[in-house]
């Protein structure tokens, strides 16, 4: 098998102009979760032009699986997400979004371009007999949002049954706090469990001048909020990662009327599943304060993406594939990523690919942009990792 690193570096770099063209096209025409019709058609057209892939369309929505097999061997997946965010872009780039209120502010445009670059090199290598085994390129819809059933694109693709033979799966994420030529990796839990809660406190409203005649839900809410924030430091081991954040508090419509209800909404983030359970249980205990104060409550907790668990053996291979780059070992933060559904079922790992500009553009911000010289680096690290997994017969720690 011919997978010389220097060769892949050269061939990936030669793709730069095409990678940039693809990435900017996706950026101009972003589409929200479960609406990626034009994006999917564009990807399918490019894949079909290589005349080597078995292409499955409309998997889990507008998802695509492109399979290339060359002889017996492991089955390795490489995944990129496709959807954009409901954000109005404020960059002045010539390739700025043409869809008002929708923007690729999380780098998914780059992820797709990188996976298409991998497809081109993979097609060339298949024709030259340079690898043995099967590689599946997974273009996944709806990473940023879920449907009415609470399912993201990752869940739907896994439920399709078309990925059941995967023995390992790889992915990357653009990283604006690292420069091009740098990657960030981490073994084990690396991004957070992401759960949401909605507590409604029910009291009885009335005239603000006669508070003794009402059951004031805002007063109850002040007690609840203090107790919620104390959970971080009193329920969770200080050596573990876990946090509760309140993002919305809604009550009342007039300054001289005590309302009947208060709505409190927020998120619960953690790395370990036992910490997740402790924080969810703690919120239920806090809610009981409302009853003690004379009110009533309803509480709903929606369990979202699980924490991202990176397989150490696959990370070892990624680091070998990234030889020559600057590498940083550190968790990726308290954000969430539905690639975690893959790594809970299949040995897998995601690394963060440095793409930072001189002035950092944060993820999910209206001015987000990347250093496009990072694109060929993503191509060669992911493809080299897949080839190394094929050579070594897959993952032995599974």
Automatic annotation (TrEMBL):
Domain Peptidase M20 dimerisation: from-to ranges: 196-287
Keywords: Hydrolase, Manganese, Metal-binding
Chain positions recorded as Mn(2+) 1 binding sites: 173
Co-factor: note: The Mn(2+) ion enhances activity.
Residues reported to bind Mn(2+) 2: 106, 108, 144, 364
Superkingdom of the organism of origin: Bacteria
Alphabetized GO MF terms: hydrolase activity; metal ion binding
Cofactor(s), by name: Mn(2+)
Glycosyltransferase among keywords: no
Protein's recorded name: Amidohydrolase
Species whose genome carries this gene: Halobacillus faecis
Lineage of producing organism: Bacteria, Bacillati, Bacillota, Bacilli, Bacillales
